[in-house]
Design goal:
By secondary structure, this protein is an alpha/beta fold. The chain has helices at residues 14-29, 47-56, 73-91, 103-114, 134-144, 154-162, 176-189, 193-196, 212-215, 219-230, 242-250, 268-276, 287-295, 310-313, 330-337, 352-361, 373-381, and strands spanning 6-11, 35-40, 64-65, 95-99, 119-122, 148-151, 170-172, 205-208, 236-239, 260-263, 280-283, 299-301, 317-319. 43% of the residues lie in helices and 13% in strands. The radius of gyration is 21 Å and the shape is globular. Bound molecules: uridine-diphosphate-N-acetylglucosamine.
């Protein structure tokens, strides 16, 4: 085992901040054990996409800002790689922690692994099995080069074993993004975002749509028209991502229904308040499928697949398909979902970061050849790898 005295985390885009903040807090509670430093790549840079999150979540000022900004995938990924390399060479952390599946995640992981700096991947093992999604490529590559794979749902372990990853590297720690929600719950409840945006708690639809498959395609026209019709039935609050706002502007699209409240992206606390009191959520985000599950809010996902099937099996999530014509069904689906039982997956309990830090403090295993493919079959017959919680770190 390699000892761990310095952990460096990398964040870049909005969904990363909530996954890493509780890990930083967990390290702060154990100040003597491990030094923690933070790199912000600057993939997201607007105040509403970045600064407000860091402030609200108490992340503090990053130790290193890379200011990579927007760009084509190759250019953005390359800029992160170029700019993080000298920092990693100079600081040589014992582990580089990367969350999620954005371009910053894979870029930082690739540079670290070539410098023989072990990578720990938060939210490992998620798979949509849709290689047209840039995030799917980022997930597969990051997992392959990670020494420690921190998972939050049972299917993640199966996905990783199928790709030949050694099960001993996989740790079922739970969901650090839900840690943030648990930690912030009281502050979220102090806010009444619904009223502030002119809607009645419990009687509106919250919408977020930003994936290129929808917004950078001709389907955006149909989606805007369908949302306009839905807004005549139920008030809609739509905090719009800059990618979507830009695409609407380019295509000359606008909403006209008086029930549509098109607003700037919200900070974390305000958005979660809005989600908690919504009658339903329509989204193509990954994180919101999880947050809606935790909060018991009916969630309708405008995608053909999800890398988070546990939210459909246990939670409130329904896959509509990448089908703007189905948006019109949402008001009726919300009614149908009332009273449907939903559960929170194990490990989505507010203590995932503590379990993750326990694993890190035990050290990083040296690389060894993964078990032969047959070994997985034997282990699977034994029931072990498929079970959530099997592995070194166990949930209580
Ligand atoms: C990225 C992630 C996606 C994640 C999303 C959350 C990748 C491949 N995608 O997508 O997985 O769900 O973040 O938001 O990493 N822009 C601004 N201000 C900003 C950031 C972006 O105006 O602070 C605009 C720019 O026009 C930019 C566009 O949004 O070109 C897209 O930003 P980018 O970081 O490339 O990807 P996202 O769509 O945000």
């Amino acid at each position: 085992m390699r000892p761990v005295r310095h952990v460096m985390s990398v964040v870049g885009a909005r969904p990363n901040f909530m996954k890493t903040a509780p890990v930083i807090a967990a390290f702060a509670r154990r100040p003597d054990a491990v030094r923690h430093t933070l790199v912000h790549t600057g993939q997201h840079y607007d105040a509403v996409m970045s600064r407000v999150f860091l402030e609200e979540l108490g992340v503090g000022t990053p130790d290193h800002m890379l200011d990579v900004g927007s760009g084509a995938h190759g250019a953005q990924t390359a800029r992160v790689m170029e700019r993080i390399e000298p920092i990693l060479e100079r600081e040589r952390p014992d582990v580089l922690l990367v969350p999620g599946d954005v371009n910053s995640t894979v870029a930082a992981a690739l540079v670290a692994s070539k410098l023989d700096i072990p990578v720990g991947h938060i939210e490992a093992g998620l798979r949509s099995y849709d290689r047209s999604m840039p995030e799917e490529i980022n997930r597969i590559l990051t997992d392959q080069i990670s020494s420690l794979l921190f998972i939050h749902s049972p299917e993640a372990r199966d996905n990783l074993l199928r790709e030949g990853i050694d099960g001993h590297r996989v740790h079922a720690v739970g969901n650090t993004m839900i840690d943030t929600l648990v930690a912030m719950r009281a502050r979220i409840r102090e806010i009444d975002a619904a009223t502030a945006h002119g809607v009645t708690p419990g009687a509106y639809l919250v919408v977020t749509l930003h994936r290129p498959a929808l917004v950078d395609s001709a389907m955006l026209v149909a989606a805007v028209a369908a949302l306009d019709r839905v807004a005549a039935e139920i008030p809609v609050v739509f905090p719009i991502h800059p990618r979507t706002a830009n695409a609407m502007r380019r295509q000359g699209l606008a909403f006209s229904a008086p029930g549509m409240r098109l607003i700037e992206p919200l900070g974390y606390l305000e958005f979660l308040s809005l989600l908690e009191h919504a009658a339903g959520a329509l989204t193509d985000s990954g994180g919101i499928q999880e947050e809606a599950t935790y909060l018991g809010v009916p969630c309708f996902t405008l995608r053909d697949n999800t890398e988070r099937p546990v939210t459909c099996e246990l939670g409130t999530n329904v896959l509509l398909g990448l089908a703007p014509e189905r948006i019109g069904e949402v008001p009726a689906l919300i009614e149908a979902a009332r009273g449907r039982p939903a559960a929170v997956p194990p490990g989505w309990d507010g203590a995932a970061a503590e379990r993750l830090v326990d694993v890190l403090e035990a050290g990083v295993p040296e690389w060894a050849p993964p078990p032969a493919p047959g070994a997985h079959a034997v282990a699977a017959a034994d029931g072990r790898p498929a079970r959530f919680g099997a592995g070194v770190a166990r949930l209580p």
